[in-house]
Design a protein that fits this description.
alpha+beta; 462 residues; Methylamine Dehydrogenase, Chain H; five-stranded antiparallel β-sheet; single chain; 5 helices
């Protein structure tokens, strides 16, 4: 009666609300809720909570792969993670001279002694003469076609990816050195066959970025890693330390025929001058040449006061006589590169040509005329090696002034030889024995011998 003023719809709605309230009251939900709460509380009392560990002041940083850090393994290594308090550092290669002891000291010592004896013997009397500079191009192509790869001339010499190689100038024995990304140096006497004749040494803790047999004394093998420059002297069976630095080294080349001084490039763009005759392991001079990164340095074969430096998009020639700590200006510059340059080298006899490999997928050849670089060719070439392959370096054939060798991404896998006009002269391939990309290659100075190294530490000798 008190709701007579409401409409029929409102009275019906009020009736429904009242009936629903009576229905939920009959269910006694509040008692059920209280009972459930009591049961939950009782069960929880029997459970012991795990104490949360206290957060350490300095937590150990998880190790992340180079792929996740987007770091190219053929260049600068990932930054070192801070070690937790009290943790012992992993033992690395110590400073100072190191004995020539193989990685596995339980290996056949007779094999090691035989290999080092061979290296010493072929280095005693050696006169390298370049005889094929003016050989007709057709005859040169025929000599390339005659070079073959057989199964016994393929061998895994180092454990990881090949970063550098050097070939001994001996004309009687094929003797090759290879450096990998872990600091290993493998020596291989190819003439012994694929099952023997190789030993592995660990003179470095970081990638062996560059390596040369001394042109003055091939009994010396000079190798460079991120922080050290060493000389392996087989006559004393020791790896001497020439230079040590907190900076990361990228490449080097000898400034004199007697190999007593060298120019060393840094990943951060600087260069240093090293003299092996001075005591200690400090460089003679550290120089800022204005590069953000220096990948390769190469000394002119005739006028050795000039050296060629290649960095990001920079390729410049400098005069070592006028270097100072900063404010250095190049003698000449090579323009036209739009991405990072992987390598730049003078031609081996006169130094009148320069060949470069660039990430813009081009090979470039230029005349070197001291003040400017007239372009010889700009050849399209797939240089996209990716993150897990060593970047291509186009190297001149020491027997020719006008031909160079470079790795290839083409299939079937091959190593290519180009003329300084950009013309492809020959492709080294073997479907049965060569199934991988050979990023690093080296050519014998007098013999028709080519060695290619891949990302698994395997060498292929044509």
């Amino acid at each position: 009666d008190g709701y007579s003023q409401l409409s029929a719809y409102e009275r019906k709605r009020l009736k429904n609300i009242t009936e629903n309230a009576k229905f939920f009251a009959a269910l006694k939900l509040h008692e059920v809720s209280a009972r459930l709460n009591q049961i939950a509380t009782k069960r929880q009392s029997h459970v012991t909570k795990r104490a949360k560990p206290k957060k350490a002041e300095e937590e150990t940083v998880r190790r992340r792969s180079m792929r996740l850090q987007r770091v190219e393994p053929s260049q600068i290594p990932p930054p070192e993670m801070p070690a937790p308090p009290g943790a012992e550092e992993q033992p690395g290669v110590p400073a100072g001279p190191l004995p020539m002891v193989p990685e596995d000291q339980m290996e056949n010592t007779e094999l090691t002694e035989g290999l080092l004896t061979t290296w010493m013997r072929i280095s005693e009397v050696l006169l390298v003469t370049i005889t094929d500079i003016f050989l007709m191009l057709s005859r040169y192509q025929d000599s390339l076609s005659s070079m073959v790869l057989s199964e016994e001339n393929v061998r895994k010499v180092v454990k990881y990816r090949v970063c550098s190689m050097a070939i001994h100038p001996s004309e009687s024995i094929i003797f090759v050195a290879a450096g990998d990304k872990s600091g290993q140096i493998g020596l291989w006497n190819v003439n012994c066959g694929s099952e023997e004749g190789a030993c592995v040494f660990i003179p470095h803790s970081d990638p062996v970025n560059c390596m040369h047999f001394s042109p003055f004394n091939p009994a010396h093998l000079v190798s460079l890693s991120n922080g050290t420059l060493r000389c392996g002297d087989v006559t004393r069976a020791v790896f001497d330390e020439i230079c040590r630095s907190e900076e990361s080294f990228s490449s080097f080349d000898f400034l004199e025929d007697n190999a007593s001084t060298a120019i060393v490039g840094h990943w951060d763009g600087d260069v240093t001058v090293v003299d092996r005759r001075t005591p200690g392991t400090s460089p003679e001079l550290s120089v800022d040449i204005g590069f953000k990164r220096t990948r390769t340095v190469h000394v002119h074969p005739v006028n050795k006061q000039y050296f060629l430096a290649a960095g990001l998009v920079d390729v410049c020639v400098y005069d070592v006589r006028y270097l100072k700590s900063n404010g250095n200006k190049p003698v000449s510059s090579l323009k036209g590169h739009t991405k990072s340059v992987a390598s730049a080298y003078f031609s081996p006899v006169t130094g009148s040509r320069v060949v470069t490999v660039c990430a813009d997928d081009k090979l470039r050849g230029m005349f070197y005329l001291s003040l400017f670089f007239p372009c010889l060719f700009s050849q399209r070439h797939n240089n996209n090696t990716g993150r897990w392959l060593t970047r291509f370096r186009a190297i001149w054939d020491p027997k020719r002034e006008d031909c160079f060798v470079v790795g290839s991404m083409e299939r079937p896998r091959q190593i290519e030889v180009f003329q300084d006009t950009g013309k492809l002269l020959h492709s080294f391939c073997n479907i049965d024995c060569l199934a991988s990309v050979c990023s690093i290659n080296v050519v014998h100075p007098t013999k028709n011998i080519l060695v290619g190294g891949n990302s698994s530490g395997r060498l292929h000798v044509f």
